[in-house]
Q: What sequence folds into this?
């Protein structure tokens, strides 16, 4: 299908420290593309650059045919590239259903018509329930988000991220802090929601990466170390050294 996200010579420095160093990345449309690497490799900074939360020091970012370098995060999201975060970004004291409706409202005129009664959002209920059903949360829709177990909170965050119907979904450590059972559920869920869209995934759990990913990019010290399929990457000596502290590791 061709690349839907591309970077060229992308770099970001913080007070002299180069967190992302001359990264040229190409994400094919309709695939799951994993970004992996040791701690401090620059993975989250790269995500922050792609989603507009950090402005690059140099280089370019393209979404489709559009140059989105330096574009504000809300504009990038409206174009169809939406991200999640390592830390839950949900409203804990709203219901599960209302959390999703807040995300749906952002694409309507309702935020600008604050004087309308609460029942004006009722037209969003059906779509919100569809999204919750997609992530297995419809039966828990009336619970407060704070009442959900950790893994279920991550599922809710995924439903919130899907509400804008993104073409590209950026998932930052979606299984972080989960037990084995929840990891399996979230991994299967990501596989389902990836159908018909592109997913870029930062993930430490290599079993999740191997199960889901079409392409893997390995970062080390802000640079691309290796890129390829899981089978190509797992046996590369440079990757083994980076993860296990071999001769080239500076993690």
A:
């Amino acid at each position: 299908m061709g690349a839907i996200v591309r970077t060229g010579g992308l770099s970001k420095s913080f007070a002299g420290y180069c967190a992302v160093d001359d990264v040229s990345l190409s994400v094919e449309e309709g695939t799951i593309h994993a970004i992996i690497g040791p701690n401090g490799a620059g993975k989250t900074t790269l995500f922050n650059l792609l989603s507009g939360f950090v402005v690059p020091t140099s280089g370019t970012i393209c979404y489709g045919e559009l140059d989105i370098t330096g574009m504000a995060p809300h504009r990038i999201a409206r174009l169809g590239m939406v991200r999640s975060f390592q830390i839950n970004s949900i409203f804990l004291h709203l219901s599960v259903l209302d959390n999703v409706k807040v995300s749906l409202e952002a694409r309507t005129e309702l935020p600008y018509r604050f004087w309308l009664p609460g029942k004006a959002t009722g037209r969003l209920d059906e779509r919100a329930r569809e999204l919750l059903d997609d992530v297995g949360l419809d039966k828990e829709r009336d619970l407060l988000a704070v009442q959900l177990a950790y893994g279920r909170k991550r599922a809710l965050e995924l439903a919130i991220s899907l509400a804008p119907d993104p073409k590209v979904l950026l998932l930052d450590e979606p299984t972080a802090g989960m037990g084995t059972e929840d990891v399996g559920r979230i991994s299967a869920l990501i596989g389902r929601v990836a159908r018909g869209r592109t997913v870029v995934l930062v993930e430490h759990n290599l079993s999740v990466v191997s199960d889901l990913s079409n392409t893997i990019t390995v970062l080390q010290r802000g640079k691309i170390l290796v890129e390829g399929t899981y089978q190509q990457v797992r046996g590369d000596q440079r990757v083994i050294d980076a993860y296990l502290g071999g001769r080239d590791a500076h993690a």
Observations:
- The longest helix spans residues 180-193.
- The chain has a mean pLDDT of 86.
- The longest strand covers residues 3-14.
- The domain at 3-244 is CATH 3.40.50.300 (Rossmann fold).
